[in-house]
Amino acid sequence: MRFMRSMAAATACLLLLAAQAFAQDFGNADYVQDMDTGAVNWQTGYVTAKGIGVPPPNSVSLAQARGMAIRAATVDARRNLLSMIKGVQIDAQTTVQNAMIADDTVVERVRGFLQNSQILDTAYMSDGSVEVSVGMNLRGGLANALIPPETPFFVPGGSMLAPSPVPGPVPQMTDNGTVPAHGTEGPLAPAPENNAPFTGLLVDARGLGARPAMSPRLLDETGKEVYGTASVSREYAIQQGMAGYGKDMDKAAANPRVAGHPLVVKAVAVDGKARTNLVISNDDAAKLRELAPGQDFLEKCRVMIVLD
Fold first, then answer.
1. Does one domain contain both 114 and 228?
2. Mind giving me the DSSP string for 67-84?
3. Do 157 and 303 share a domain, yes or no?
4. Residues 166 and 298 in one domain
5. Which domain-ending residue is among 105, 126, 146?
6. Could you give the dihedral angle defined by the CA atoms of residues 150, 152, 158 and 164, in that order, rounded to the nearest 10 degrees?
7. Residue 143 has pLDDT above 60, yes or no
8. Which of 33-42, 49-58, 192-201 comes out lowest in average pLDDT?
9. Are 280 and 219 in contact (CB under 8 A)?
10. What phi and psi, each to the nearest 5 degrees, are found at residue 261?
11. Residue 182 has what pLDDT?
12. How large is the average pLDDT for residues 223-232?
């Protein structure tokens, strides 16, 4: 009996270690921006931050000291979380901080969500101080508050992937000063033999110094939009985000957002000062526009972008 218990315990430990390894391996595929006070996971859309609180010297009891340290740590963590969120790019031109400066109602809404941010962990230090971790999602209610109501979104029955009325700026070149020839670095995946629809779009943007944003855009080489808010349903954009971000092509292709038979394209350049908009070849853009009317993976934001 003792042997069987030992074997069961050993098996449980092995299973736990395997699960932890799998979770760590999967997490490593996410694109995470680490900053001094926290991190932004651009695959999950979750922003986290930590804060430290110390007990006041005039505490009358250990319970009071600990409670006040937790409260101070939570305030510090949410202050750091606000700092993190302010630095997030909404699109190529606007950060959350820009949006808050431009509109007082955005300030009120962001602060409201901040006060309701989730306490993820509380750690008690040997010196009596407390570290609190808090987090909140950029998607859902916060995204709805940050993306202006007048932003054009796709409406079922409307036209998807229509060219921009005014061509955008000339795309920035790659590091070697040129735009690669059409389709030479990332031909679209061939359609399956049974003509099954594509399950998503996978964009390889490695090697370009591209950065993530809540509302990224795909452009062709003339600056006309191929994918943006006008291509997606607002509901999907708010709840799921315009795109997920990863740092491994194979794992991104297996992500539930696009898994099955994703269409693969190679970004050839970045556009804009924030480097969040991606340029694909005119040939790939034409093929994507041709596919769009018959398939809804863009409307449903089934897009993964792989960055360095």
1. no
2. HHHHHHHHHHHHHHHHHH
3. yes
4. yes
5. 146
6. 140
7. yes
8. 192-201
9. yes
10. -145, 75
11. 35
12. 95
